[in-house]
């Protein structure tokens, strides 16, 4: 589902952990299942990740009560080890993530094209909540 006028939304955080640790937690399925959800009543029971240009990923996100869930899928279009990830979600929207080492911390900036059927503010809140959950997970598991 291609959009005509794509709105770019950016979320960001600084994780107090070295970029190598942040990169591993972002990309390894055993870590992804511990943080890839926006609230405590959701979880990520399954993740697959083929981290290479042309590689695919899939993360299953689901309500813990079983009432709803979905697979978040995409294909990697560009990578720079421990520095940048770009991918296209299966609906055609593009996502870019930059990882910048700041001493023993890592700054993450994630920019994505908004969906047409949800308010941009709601999308930003949801993606920021997932990013905040990622930060919490990494910092608790240093």
TrEMBL record:
Question: The organism sits in which domain of life?
Answer: Bacteria
Query: What InterPro entries is this protein classified in?
Result: ASHA1/2-like_C, START-like_dom_sf
- Pfam families referenced in this protein's UniProt entry, alphabetically: AHSA1
Coiled coil spans: none
Task: Pinpoint the Activator of Hsp90 ATPase homologue 1/2-like C-terminal domain residues.
Answer: 17-139
Q: Which family is it part of? A: Belongs to the AHA1 family.
What is the protein's given name? Uncharacterized conserved protein YndB, AHSA1/START domain
